[in-house]
Predict the structure of Probable membrane transporter protein.
Amino acid sequence: MSFDSALVWALVTALVAGVTRGFSGFGGALIFIPLVSAAFGPKVAAPALLVIDTVLTLPFLIPALRACIWRQVTPLAVGAVVAVPAGVWVLEHVDALALRWTLALLSLGMLALLVSGWKHSGRHNLPTTLGVGAIAGVLGGAAQMSGPPVVAYWLGSGQPSALVRANLFGFFALATLASGTAYAAHGLMTLEVGRLVLLLGPAYGIGLYAGAKAFHGASDRHFRVAAYWIIALAALLSLPVLDALLGR
């Protein structure tokens, strides 16, 4: 793949990822990381998305922080923050092929739970919540893909889409601080990452605002169906068979 074709591929990906993130509150990384990594590598794609998403979601963050329920967000965020360094270690040391298979299987497992109609019984206990947060933290540090376990956890409790979306913005705000610190400490914030941020940021921003506008006309059912499709797409895009299509 030439640089020009790789850049076009990445720009289209950033636009679609932005729409997804703006609509659902998550899912941008599930599209961005596998596809942009195919062109520029995961050690560039993951830090670039962290910077792009952090800067461009700031206008959405303040209203979401007012609407989210912090007693639900905080335990998940604590578990994630503690586990993020383990995810960064995975990004640096684990074979990329094995990581992609693992992400695909995890995404499919969580999707199967949601589609089956599974619901949490009773209140969320602290150990379980911290455990879900830790899984999200590892996935976030490894590939900026902390959304699926958290979304499955909250959607499985039958919470309304507006609350899930607000909680996700609050959760990602805290988890991003941990990921950004870890990436910087491990020397992953490079000039190449900076160039990719400048190139792809505008496309992601356009998509983000388009997705947010679409969300305001969506019902809970539409939100839930969209979340299912996003997780399914993430699983498919994480599969190594994508390499043949991209000439890698």
About this structure: The first helix runs from residue 3 to 24.
